[in-house]
Each structure stands twice: as structure tokens, then as C-alpha cells.
Design goal:
- This protein has 121 residues and is α+β, with helices and mostly antiparallel strands.
- Among the domains are: 28-68, no CATH class; 81-115.
- The chain is 22% helix and 17% strand.
- It has helices at 86-93, 96-114; strands at 28-34, 40-46, 57-59, 66-68.
- A two-stranded antiparallel sheet has the order 1-2. Strands 3-4 form a two-stranded antiparallel ribbon.
- The longest helix is centred in the C-terminal third of the chain and has 19 residues, at 96-114.
- The radius of gyration is 33 Å and the shape is elongated.
- The protein starts with 27 loop residues before the first strand and ends in a 7-residue tail after the last helix.
Length: 121
């Protein structure tokens, strides 16, 4: 075959086929986390990371639940609170009497600014 390419399909500069030395792997630590459904998630950390810097809990990518390092006692799901409006939060902080006082004061201020203030009798 005249004019054929002898290195067809090979990377230029790749060296011998099956080259295994593509750099050194860093040492790492494997940590397993389990969620309440029994799903295991493995995370890898650099071997030189201090034990106290490795998190005790993560969010499981499988279930979205919190996952801990103790398989026998996985973290429990926190109570999921429903969405609250701004008014609901205000009602938690103020009594009904305080709300009436604040509303009256705000209305009096508004009426005074507009020139339609009513007299308190």
C-alpha cells in the first residue's frame, strides 16, 4: 500500500501502546455515608485532611436526605415546615392587641400627612 499512514489511530507522542504512567495518584481516604433509607454514598478526601475537617453529615445525592457516617444510626429527617408568608411570621411576633395599636398609629400618621386626621375622642 503506497502512501498509507503507518500510525493511523495512534496519538502523536503517545509512546508505547498501553502506557500506564500518566502521573501519580494522590493518596486519598474513602468515607461512607448512609441515609435513613439505607443508601450508601462514598466520598473521597485527600489523605492529609484532618479528621475533624471531614463532615459528619452530607446530603445524599440519591434521596436528598441527610446522610451520616454511622450506618446503624443514620441522621433522621428534620421536620419539614410548610411555607410561611410574611404575615404568618408577623403574627408569631405580635399579639392581636399590638397589631391593632400599630395599625391605628400607622393610620393616624397617614391621615395626618394627607390632612384628613380624625380626632380621638
Amino acid at each position: 500500500m503506497a502512501g498509507s499512514n503507518a500510525i493511523r489511530g495512534a496519538r502523536v507522542g503517545s509512546g508505547p501502546m498501553g502506557e500506564q504512567d500518566h502521573g501519580a495518584r494522590a493518596e486519598r481516604t474513602q468515607i461512607s455515608y448512609w441515609d435513613a433509607l439505607g443508601n450508601e454514598t462514598v466520598r473521597y478526601f485527600a489523605a492529609d485532611v484532618a479528621v475533624e475537617d471531614i463532615p459528619e453529615q452530607i446530603d445524599s445525592p440519591t434521596s436528598g436526605l441527610p446522610a451520616g457516617r454511622d450506618q446503624a444510626n443514620p441522621p433522621q429527617v428534620l421536620k419539614n415546615e410548610p411555607f410561611k408568608t410574611h404575615l404568618a411570621y408577623v403574627k408569631e411576633r405580635r399579639t392581636e392587641e399590638e397589631a391593632v395599636e400599630l395599625l391605628d398609629a400607622a393610620l393616624d400618621k397617614l391621615r395626618a400627612r394627607r390632612g384628613t386626621a380624625r380626632s380621638k375622642a
